Amino acid sequence: MLELRPACEHCAAALPPASADARICSFECTFCAHCADTLLQQVCPNCGGNLVPRPIRPAQDWNGRGNSLQHHPAPSQAKHRPADLAAHAELLRRLAGRPPGAR
């Protein structure tokens, strides 16, 4: 189950569970849309994977199966580890032209 981390790892912008601005990689590294689009160019600085919109977990249990924030709340502990933009530029250079499936 996704952690739904509460903030951008780079700039610490708030990303509540219903935020459409959250972007994640397959390891759940979490960034805001602004950082993902502009600084990181949709490439995770931690693993080199692609960043995609994070799904939104329903706030209430619509079907009685316990699949909601009511039963599976998002954590409150943020991971703030700003990307080293110089190292990320080198990573982008090495990955240039490689689609996510070929990384």
Overview of this protein structure:
With 103 residues, the chain is of the alpha+beta class. Helices cover 17% and strands 8% of the residues. The chain has 2 helices and 3 strands. It has helices spanning 33-39, 85-95, and strands spanning 22-24, 30-32, 52-53. A 3-stranded antiparallel beta sheet has the order 2-1-3. A hairpin with a 5-residue loop joins strand 1 and strand 2 (30-32). The longest helix is centred in the last third of the chain and has 11 residues, at 85-95. It is elongated and about 50 Å long. The model has no long low-confidence stretch (mean pLDDT 96).
- Helix-strand makeup class: alpha+beta
Apparent shape = elongated
Mean pLDDT over the residues: 96
Our count of domains comes out at: 1
Give a summary of the structure in a few sentences.
Helices cover 17% and strands 8% of the residues. By secondary structure, it is of the alpha+beta class.
Features:
Herpes Virus-1; alpha+beta; three-stranded antiparallel β-sheet; 103 residues
